[in-house]
Specification:
This protein has helices spanning 52-60, 100-110, 116-129, 145-158, 175-192, 203-209, 236-257; strands at residues 8-20, 25-37, 41-45, 67-72, 75-76, 84-87, 163-167, 196-200, 212-216, 223-228. The strands form two sheets. The chain has a six-stranded mixed sheet, sandwiched between helices. A four-stranded antiparallel sheet has the order 2-1-4-5, with helices on one face. 35% of the residues are buried. The chain is built from seven helices and ten strands. The chain is α/β, with parallel strands linked by helices.
Length: 258
């Protein structure tokens, strides 16, 4: 009998992604393979330009592969949907004319899933989970960057997506706030066991957040390795050094041979 917890929720198979700039056609990733299981905290880790954010957008349905395929629950991803919600790095992803509770309610009401009354109840419950109950009636301009990101996470989870897609959500925060947000995300995961696909270029953040880490090579992004980080968390320093070597050993060798 198949263990359902081992059945992939997301399957990325041989995915090559390209996008156009004004001057060039850029190959962001080349034949990338990975799978995400339910309740995974799956991290895409690599240097800037390795295509990790582009991969996230493709899983979100905003970009179609030129080669390979992406499947969610066995169905090919061809467009965005409420089964995938994204949290971005930018603080201005909230609607500035709506309060915190109205921002979290917004996707619930517009999707037709809830009436205003039931949406408000669900929104308030999620706002409590991210420790912002006192600010439910505040507007985004009254919040700190970390608080805005907590609202964005609550809004993403309100739709009960199959997977939450997080694109370097804490990168713009100061170091102390970033660490606090990482702790809060893990506490929220302990409570709800949601599935998250998380993009970062920070090795310590990847080790802390991820149960599994996919290492991507510099441009164009190709899979270098996949690590189960949970088993190594007691020796995070050693794991960090190992990942650093795996990501950048090729570049060091090239420099030495010049």
């Amino acid at each position: 009998m198949t263990n359902s917890s081992q059945t992939p929720l997301v399957e990325v198979r041989g995915v090559t992604l390209q996008y156009k700039t004004r001057e060039h056609l850029v190959t962001a990733t080349y034949r990338v393979d990975f799978s995400v299981r339910k309740s995974d905290r799956f991290v895409l880790l690599g240097p800037s330009g390795c295509g990790k954010s582009t991969l996230l957008k493709a899983v979100g349905g905003y970009l179609r592969p030129i080669e390979g395929e992406i499947r969610l629950n066995g169905h090919e991803v061809i467009k965005p949907g409420p089964d995938r919600m994204m949290v971005f790095q930018e603080f201005d992803q909230l609607l500035p004319w709506k309060t915190v509770v109205q921002n979290v309610m917004f996707p619930l009401v517009t999707s037709g899933k809830h009436t205003s009354r039931s949406a408000r109840g669900k929104a308030l419950d999620l706002i409590a989970k991210v420790n912002l109950s006192k600010f439910a009636d505040s507007y985004p301009h009254m919040l700190s960057g970390g608080m805005k990101q907590r609202v964005a996470i609550a809004r993403g989870m309100a739709m009960e997506p199959d997977i939450l897609l997080m694109d370097e959500p804490f990168a713009a925060l100061d170091a102390l706030t970033r660490r606090k947000m990482q702790d809060e995300l893990l506490a929220l995961w302990d409570e709800t066991r949601f599935t998250v696909l998380f993009v970062t270029h920070s090795i310590p953040e990847a080790i802390k957040i991820g149960t599994r880490i996919l290492l991507l090579s510099p441009h164009p992004g190709q899979v270098k390795a996949e690590l189960n980080s949970g088993a190594h968390i007691q020796d995070a320093t050693a794991l960090e050094k190992r990942i650093q070597h795996m990501l950048f050993a090729d570049q060091i060798e090239e420099a030495e041979n010049v």
